[in-house]
Amino acid sequence: xxxxxxxxxxxxxxxxxxxxxxxxxxxxxxxxxxxxxxxxxxxxxxxxxxxxxxxxxxxxxxxxxxxxxxxxxxxxxxxxxxxxxxxxxxxxxxxxxxxxxxxxxxxxxxxxxxxxxxxxxxxxxxxxxxxxxxxxxxxxxxxxxx
Amino acid sequence: xxxxxxxxxxxxxxxxxxxxxxxxxxxxxxxxxxxxxxxxxxxxxxxxxxxxxxxxxxxxxxxxxxxxxxxxxxxxxxxxxxxxxxxxxxxxxxxxxxxxxxxxxxxxxxxxxxxxxxxxxxxxxxxxxxxxxxxxxxxxxxxxxx
Amino acid sequence: xxxxxxxxxxxxxxxxxxxxxxxxxxxxxxxxxxxxxxxxxxxxxxxxxxxxxxxxxxxxxxxxxxxxxxxxxxxxxxxxxxxx
Amino acid sequence: xxxxxxxxxxxxxxxxxxxxxxxxxxxxxxxxxxxxxxxxxxxxxxxxxxxxxxxxxxxxxxxxxxxxxxxxxxxxxxxxxxxx
Lengths: 146, 146, 84, 84
Description:
Chains C, D: InterPro entries: Beta-grasp_dom_sf, Mopterin_synth/thiamin_S_b, ThiS/MoaD-like. The complex is a heterotetramer, with two copies of chain A (146 residues) and two copies of chain C (84 residues). Chain A has helices spanning 13-21, 50-67, 98-115, 136-143, and strands at 2-7, 27-34, 41-48, 70-78, 80-82, 87-95, 118-124, 129-131. With 146 residues, chain A is α+β, with helices and mostly antiparallel strands. Chain A has one domain: Aldehyde Oxidoreductase, domain 3 (Alpha-Beta Complex), CATH 3.90.1170. In chain A, helix 2 (50-67) runs antiparallel to helix 3. Chain A is globular and about 50 Å long. The two termini of chain A are 25 Å apart. The relative contact order of chain A is 0.24. Chain C has one domain (19-78). Chain C contains three helices and five strands; from the N terminus they run βαβααβββ. Chain C has helices at residues 8-14, 30-38, 42-48, and strands at 2-6, 18-21, 55-58, 61-63, 74-78. Chain C has a five-stranded mixed beta sheet. In chain C, helix 1 (8-14) packs antiparallel against helix 3 and helix 2 (30-38) packs antiparallel against helix 3. The longest helix of chain C is centred in the middle third of the chain and has 9 residues, at 30-38. Chain C is globular, with a radius of gyration of 12 Å. The A-D interface holds A 33, 46-49, 51-52, 55-56, 77, 88-89, 109-110, 112-121, 131-134, 138-139 and D 5, 7-9, 57, 60-62, 74, 76, 78-84. Strand 2 (27-34) of chain A pairs antiparallel with strand 2 (27-34) of chain B, so a sheet runs across the interface.
């Protein structure tokens, strides 16, 4: 099972996890990213490169499936305007081996950070905006997987 | 937020994740262990040491909270008779840092495997039974966290 | 009195969940007590004959087998845990 | 023709989502083209003046800036990605 979705709408984490649990693998790991509030942030606007995004996320998933013995994975990434508390991204993996499930989950979220064509713009109270800068740490982390 | 439950009944993974997402940390990691079928297994029977279990799981959680900057965690471990496909254990962690969320999740599940007083007995078709042997690998993995 | 509790196949082989015994000398280690119990023979010997397969807790804390029992009130004997 | 697409602050500074230009020589690299576009001045200079801040994709694949454009149909220019 490989499920990749790039969408504006929210998603149902429970449904994703139930589908992964049903693969009978024994272990399901997940990571959900949520918009952090604070500092007067009123919204995060996620822009992406539609012609590229789905194919690129797909490629990252294939890479994970080649590296770890996974029974299935599910990756969902939202775009558009998201308020604090909203989910941005979900990664779920199922494997017979808990280490494979957890490691591939970490790998996928690291790679999405540095290899998926999304850009985040912050909107603050009072009208100020700013593009989130990529963190060198994120590129380094993704490269760390070799 | 620290939530520890040792119970016979099933649990609601979605409710646990929503509570962790609501802490506003930005990242929520989880691991769910499910009874694997196959080999004629009809049920897994989990015995535990009631006077010790809750306190011991609590201690493992405190250890995780001391090691990583977590906003919250939730650990649920079931006991009793569980059929293939049933959830056994859930670990969820929330942090501002995705690495902290994922690593502490891996730490908790590794430690539960080697430090929580549970024992698994397998029941097979035809009436055969057998206690699951601890894997040296699991003790080694837990010790790897130092 | 010292309460001894058994789990998993240790419990099954001995055929008891728990029992009480007169408190041993404070210097007696868990391993010493395991040897004493195993010497009862039968299920005890089956369960406790090979101490390398056993783990223990004193008053609900994991302890190495060479730990003296001291003034603990509860000793638990069991195989390596298999939770998670 | 070559389609050039822009994202994030590159798009905002240039004021265009995409544009077409005559196909350059196949040996022209992405960096060469960035320099050509930046030389237009104005928003182009603001957006593309410092190539070290830019990343690129050719036909929807990430490529280093010293890659020749070859026969690609679409070039995308953007800042480092910040997904996840």
